[in-house]
Specification:
The protein is an all-alpha fold and about 350 residues long. The chain is built from 16 helices and no strands.
């Protein structure tokens, strides 16, 4: 994949909308969103990942850590201050910052999505190391990660609060790796559209069985709920293929430009959609459903991101090197760092 294609940005834009929608608390659709929204995000991130030379790994790793953790800290500190002001208790700030440093499942409420950032960072660091090996060796390592992830989820270890949700990275790297290797064949598959009907049939069959009460299938990556080793791969991949195919077809039309743009500014939406809705619902006393929750969780953070982009310092702290929206193509080394974010 020589350049970042529009359909990938469309998929990222749709992904962030689904992430926001999933936090609206809709008990009817949430279980089904859980089947694929996080796998989709990890797989699309893998599509943008490039091999890391062994000799340059540590230098690259430091840049990756800085790329992910600067916004993590910036948003975390601001939200901690906002929470303290709301509670009228400044002593909550150091407590919240300690929890943010630990990360993972100890975080909830205002910080509910922060687990994803550190988990994705761990996945990047793992994949960056594995990319030096042959595809066969890397695939074996990823398969072992998948087995280990299920060993954790199907044991008392599933209840452990591991820092940064690093144990979830054992599961997440599987979808990330599929995206990484998929960039060589996935565009051709989507161009032909040959996987759409079979994948859609798998999705409909799984949903039908679930709705009919004939089985219960659930995935929640944050809380390590994936305990059906075969189906935990088949069902999410089928769902992801359907979504990617729709994004691929949609990308041919100008109407998808808004989604494509959204796919380039996901960071502020990811961090802010929960705090924004908490302020609206509990701070201002507004009551609304899934649609308004999703719209508010996308549009308001988007506006905040634009305001932040007007300052170079704030843009660097809160939006990362990407800034606000897609910029002109950079030299290849810079482009990789930007695209993967």
């Amino acid at each position: 994949m020589k350049e970042r294609k529009k359909w990938i940005d469309v998929a990222r834009g749709l992904s962030i909308i689904l992430v926001v929608m999933g936090h609206a608390g809709n008990e009817l659709i949430n279980p089904y969103l859980g089947w694929f929204r996080m796998p989709l995000f990890f797989l699309v991130s893998g599509l943008l990942f490039k091999e890391v030379p062994a000799l340059g790994y540590w230098r690259w790793a430091v840049k990756r850590v800085r790329f992910f953790l600067v916004p993590y800290c910036a948003y975390g500190i601001c939200i901690a201050i906002l929470v303290a002001l709301k509670m009228r208790d400044l002593s909550s700030i150091p407590k919240d910052l300690l929890l943010l440093a630990y990360g993972g499942t100890v975080l909830g409420g205002w910080y509910g999505v922060f687990w994803f950032i550190t988990c994705l960072l761990v996945v990047h660091l793992l994949m960056g190391y594995l990319s030096r090996f042959s595809l066969k060796k890397a695939a074996i390592a990823v398969a072992l990660c998948y087995a280990a992830a299920h060993a954790v989820s199907m044991s008392p270890m599933a209840g452990w609060d591991i820092p940064w949700n690093a144990d979830v990275a054992l599961m997440a790297i599987v979808f990330f790796f599929l995206g990484y290797i998929g960039k060589t064949w996935l565009p051709e598959l989507l161009d032909k559209g040959s996987a759409f009907i079979p994948a859609l049939m798998v999705w409909f069959l799984a949903a039908g069985l679930n709705m009919g009460g004939l089985w219960t299938f659930r995935i929640d990556m944050k809380y390590k709920i994936y305990n059906q080793p075969l189906l935990d791969l088949i069902v999410p991949i089928a769902c992801v293929l359907v979504v990617l195919q729709l994004c691929y077809w949609a990308s041919r039309y100008k109407a998808s430009n808004a989604l494509a743009f959204l796919g380039t500014v996901t960071i502020a939406i990811m961090y802010l959609h929960v705090p924004v809705n908490i302020v609206l619902e509990y701070g201002l006393g507004l009551q609304y459903g899934t649609f308004v929750f999703t719209a508010a969780g996308v549009i308001i953070p988007l506006g905040i991101a634009w305001l932040l982009s007007q300052s170079k310092l704030l843009s660097m702290l809160f939006l990362g090197p990407n800034g606000f929206g897609r910029k002109k193509e950079k030299p290849s080394g810079q482009r990789q760092a930007l695209a993967e974010g």
